[in-house]
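User: C-alpha cells for both sequences below?

Assistant:
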Amino acid sequence: MTVDVGSDATAAVPAVAAAADETAPGATAPDGAVAVPAAPAPATAGRSWTRFRGALLNKFLLPLSVFALFIGVWYLISGLTLTRQQRFMLPLPHDVVRVGILDWSNFKVTLEALRYTVTVTFLGLAISIVLGVLAAMLMHQAKWIENSLYPWAIVLQTVPILALTGVLSFFFGFALTSRTIVCVIISFFPIVSNTLFGLQSVDRGMHELFTLHRPGRLTRLWKLELPAALPAMFTGLRNAAGLSVIGAIVGEFFFKQGNAGLGTHLSVFQSRLEGERLWATTLVASLLGIIVFVFFGWLSRRVVGRWYQPKRG
C-alpha cells in the first residue's frame, strides 16, 4: 500500500515557516500589531549572584567558621581542661576581652605600646626593602656576585637572634636602633630571594626582543627586568611585612630599656602572670601583622593587578 504524503508535507512547510515568522523579532501579527518577543531569562543576573555568593563564602564565611571553631576549642581547653589556678596561662576569651580591651586603663597602655611597635615595624621594613632590592639587583648582575652574597643572606636568616642581642646592645644600646636591626634581620631574606627570583624569571623571548634594539644593561634592568619582577617582589614584600611585625616584637622582647612596645609588655605580663592582658596584647600584635599584610596585598593589586594574573589550577 502506498501512502501519499507529498501534499501534507507541502502544506505543513508554510505553516511552520509562518509560526517561525510570528516568533521572530519585529514580526507583524495578523491584525497589524507588531509582536513583542519574549524577554530572555536573566542568566547574567543569576551568574552574578552565584559569583557574589561564592566570593562571600570563600572570603568571609569560611574564615569566620574557622575562627568560631578556634574560639570553641579555646573555651573547651580553658574551661574544661584547666583548673582555676592553671587558667592564668590560657584565660577564657571573654575574660581577655573584658580585662585587656574593654578596660580602658589597660587598653590605653596597649595602644601606646602599639604606636611604638608600629614605628619600629615600618622603619625596619623600609630599610629591609631598600637593602633587599639593591642586594638582589646586585646579585643579578653577575653569577659570581650571587654565589658570594646569597649564602650569607641565608646565614643571616637562620642565625639565632638571641645570639646577637649581646653584640647589638653593646654597640647600639637597648633602644630604637637595636630593635630596628633585629626587625631588618628577620624581614630581609624574603625580599632578597623573591626579588632575585623575579629578575631571573623574565621571559627569554622578551630578552631576545630587547637584544634586537641593543639596550644597555641599565636600560634592560629598568624597562624589562624590574617591571617583570614586580609580582614576585610584592610576594616577598607581603611575607616580609608579617615578619617585620615579628621582628619588632622580638627586638622589644629582648631589649626592654627605652620606650615600651608590645614585645616589652608581653615580657612584663608573662612575668606577672597576667594572662588576660598577655593574650590581649598578643591579639593586638596579630591584628597589626594582618593589617600590614593586607595593606601590601592591596598595594600589589593596585600596582600589578591590572596586567598580571596568576595562573590558577
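Moving on to the next sequence.
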Amino acid sequence: MKQPIVLNVSPRAQSGRSASRRLRKANRVPAILYGKHTSPEMLALDGPEFTRLLKSLAGRSLIIELARATNGDKALSFVQEIQRDPITDRFLHVDLQEVKPDETFEIRVRVQVVGESFGVKNQSGVLEISTPQLRVRCLPKDLPESLVVDVTELKVGETFKVSELKPVPGVKFLDPKGQPVVACVEPVAEIASAEIATPTAGAAAPAAGAASPAAGAAAPAAGAAAPAAGGKPGAPAAAGAKAPAAGAKPAAPAKK
C-alpha cells in the first residue's frame, strides 16, 4: 500500500451547534469517523493542518492515516464528505470513513483525462466529461489515485464508456458498462446555427392549399346584384334587385 497521509486528530466530548461553533472559533474543525465494525467517533481536526492535507490530495483518492494524540491509536480512512460555509467557505464539518487493510470498500475515484482528442484538434469539437468520478471497490492497498482516460483517438460524435476503461489490478468498476465517461461533441454555437438553418418541416412554408391574401378577396361573390339604375352613388342596392335587361324601355308610370 502507498504510504498514507497522516492526519492528527483528537476526541471531542461535546456535540451540538454551540460546541461546534466553539471549535471553529479555536480554528479547529468538528469531524466524525464512521466505521463498519465500530461506533461513530466524534473528533476534532486542526484547521490549518486539514487545509494542507486537502491541498496535498489535490483531488486524488488516497488513504489517510488518523493519528490519535491521546493514546497513539491509528486508523485508516478516507474523506467521505466536507461541509463548508456557503459564504465564507470555512470548514463546518468533515465526515471520515474508516477502512480495514484486509477488507474491500467502495469509494469514488476521480477521472483524469489525458491526451488531445482528434475531434478537438482537427474537427473543432469540445470535450464533455459526463462522469467526473466513478465508483470502485478494492482493498486499501489497491486504491488508484485516479482513473486515467486517454482521449487521443476520440472523434466528434464519439463517447468513451466505462466498458472501455483499462483494467486496474484489484479494482472492480461498479458503474454500468454502458455509462458514458467522456464525449466529444460539436460546439454549441454550431449546433444552434444548424438548427436555425434547418427549420422544422411545415413551419417555414404556408399550409398546402392556403390562398394568398388577394386571391378570392377582391372579386364579389357570384350572383351579387349591381346597384339599381339611377341609384345614388354609394347607395346600397335593394336586397335581391336585378339589373335591367339590355335594351329594355323604362317602365311607364302608373295610372292614377
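User: Anything stand out in the second?

Assistant: The chain has two domains: 5-102, 106-197.
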